[in-house]
Design goal:
Blueprint (H helix, E strand, L loop, with lengths): L1 E11 L3 H11 L5 E6 L17 E8 L4 H15 L2 E9 L10
Antiparallel strand pairs: 1-3, 1-4, 2-3
Helix pairs in contact: 1-2
Amino acid sequence: MHLVKRIEIIANSFELGKILAGLDKAGVHGHAVIRNVAGKGLREGEDLDMTMLDNVYIIAFCKPELLKPVVENIRPVLNKFGGTCYITDAMEIRSVKCVASM
C-alpha cells in the first residue's frame, strides 16, 4: 500500500472537458466520471437539483507530488464557472498477483 491523493470534483457538465484537460496536463491521466449528479451544496442557496445543466462528479487519484499542478490547473476553472473540489489522503493497494490460490 502507498499514499495517494483522492481528488473529487463536482461541477457542471459544460466544464468537464476543461477539468479533464487540467487533470491530464498535471499528469493525472486516469479518472472516473459520473454524470447527472444531483444533491445539495454546502453553501446556502446552492441546490444541484435546480441547475439548468447536468452536473458531473469526477474522481481521480494521483501521487502527492502532482497535487500542486492539479490545484493550479483546476482552481481557475472552478473559480470562473463554479463547482467544488475536495482533496483527501487515500491508500492505494496494488495487486500484481491476480491469480487466486486454491
